[in-house]
Each structure stands twice: as C-alpha cells, then as structure tokens.
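Hi there. Long-time user, first ticket. I'm pasting a complex I've been working with (about 342 residues overall). I'd like to know whether the download I got is complete or cut off, because the file seemed smaller than I expected. Thanks.
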Amino acid sequence: MEYGSILGVLLSYLLLYKYVALFAAIFFAGIVVPIPASEILMAVGAFSSQGVFNFYLALAVGLAGNVLGDLVDFFLARRYGAAVIRKLRLNRIKFFDRLEAEVRRDAPFMIFSTRIAGALGPAVSVLSGASGVPFKKFLFYDAIGNFVDIGGLLLIGFAVGSYWESFSDVVNIVVAIFVVAIIMFLLWRISRRIVRHSERNGGPDDPV
Amino acid sequence: MGELKRHPDRYINIVMAFLAIVLIVLFAALIKQYLDLRQARILNDQAIHFSLAGRREPLPNGRADIIQAWMTFDYVNRIFGLPPQYLISALNIESAAYPRIPIYEYAEKRGLNPTAFTKQVQSAVAEHQAANSQ
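Hi, the file is complete. Here it is re-exported in full:
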C-alpha cells in the first residue's frame, strides 16, 4: 500500500485516534463518501487480534456509525426526496412510480442485503426514505444487516490477523459477487411481476 | 427498439444476461485470488491458526516486511514486542510525538524519503528479532 493513499492515511488515524476515527470513517462511508470501509473493518479486526482494539467495542462503534450514516441518507431523502423528484420531473415517469412500489414491497430484503453489499447501501437508504418505507422497519433491517456485515468483516480481520491486506481483495470480490447476485434477484422478481401484470391485462406493459 | 419498449421484461433479460457474464468473470477472479493466496503460502492452516491461537503474541521472525509507512511506531513496537527505546536508539529518532506518530509522517518531518525510511525500520526490527532469537 502506498504511504500517501487514502486507506494508508485512514489506517494511521485509526491507530492514533482509535474508536473516534473508526466511528467517523464508518459514519461517512455509511452516508455515501467513498471510503474503503471493508478494508478499514478488516484492519480493525486484525488490530483487535493484536490487542490494539477491543473487538466488541469496535463492533458497537462501527455499528453505531454505519446505522447513523444510513439514517442520515434515509431522513434527507424523506425530507427532500419528494421535492427533488418533482424538480427532476421523475414523478411523470411511470417506471419511477413502479420503482417506488417495488422498493416498498421488497424493503426488508433490499435493506438487509444491501447493507452487506456496501456499494448499494446508500442508494437503497435514499430510495427507502423517498418511497416512504416506515422508519421502524428501515431501522430494524438496517441494524441487522449492518451487524452481519460489520461483524463478519471484523471477524475475518480477527481470524487472519496481520495477513488482512492479502485477504481484502478476496472480500471485495465476494462483496461484488453479492452485489451482482442481489441485482439479478431483484430484476428477476421485477421481471416476473411485469410478466404477470401483462398477462392479467392481456397485453404488453408500458415502461414509461 | 420499439419491440423492446413494448416488452420491458426483455430489457431485463438483456441486463440479466450481461450480469451473468459479470458474475462468471467475478468467480474466475475469486478462484485466481484463492490460487494466489495458496501459492504465497498465506492461505494455509498455519497462517490462520497462528492469528487465532497466538493473538497478542509478538509476530515471529521473518515478518518485519509487513511494516508499512502508515503504521505508527507504537503499533510496530506492540506487534513485534519491541522495547519502546529500541527504535529510538536504532534509528536515532528525535521526536516528542514518538511513538504516537506514523512512520511516513516522521520521515516527512525529518526530510527523509518515507519509503526508504520504512525499509530502515524493517531492517531494525529484523535485526532485533534476529538478535533475540539467538
């Protein structure tokens, strides 16, 4: 790793400011800032195995940071989402109405699974806020998904210890596979609904 | 194109086919990573077992090359079980911030090349390990 890289600087801050730096990094990654959160969590897992961090405290701080970051997206979208949709005239597109309906219908699966597939997390938080997913439902699945994600990454880092960097590429590929699989699953469900809708109405569906 | 617009599920099928190809490429990359880790002798029971069983123990000889510029001296001392004064004398470190300062930051403040200075830290740690293993 280059010493001037973003990850390198963040790791230095983690060693210097420990839980404060961990909370800040995961919170901003949760909002949408492109921070390599998976690598950070694996590194913290490794640091825990070396006695630099406390594993359970790191899990609690990471979970709090990520959930709060997701809630910022959720509430911003809930507060300003409708205005932005009107301004961009997205409300005139039938597909967008349908997307909102799909998000509401699949909320538990989408929220839970995209916490593990990091890149999609902020997008689904925003969609959940804009499409009126109930707050308690969002919080419940968000917290469970983040617990599995953060706990899993910390555990991997803890298990492989000082070899964590060698395993970070593997983890990134597994996450990418998960992201593609989630998108395929959701598209398959949407496709099935469209076909059923067409069959019920006796003709092809109009996407817009 | 008009046909596709009338049948949006066909858009989805095209995207699904593309994603299936991406999925195959990702699985191939995963297998390559697995083989690389095996070849580098990282993915074996010994490496994982060491970390799980030997946590909080100093790293063994021959691992000084894991030291990187982003690490603080405090962290290096801890993971290699070095006395705090060892690196001060071995590298002539003069900084009130020691050991809570990253290696690259110390090197930059002293006008040294961070990469070259990190190599010096690795050598000093390897020397300490060699001397203490005899």
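A couple of notes from our side: The mean pLDDT of chain B is 83. The two ends of chain B are 76 Å apart (CA to CA).
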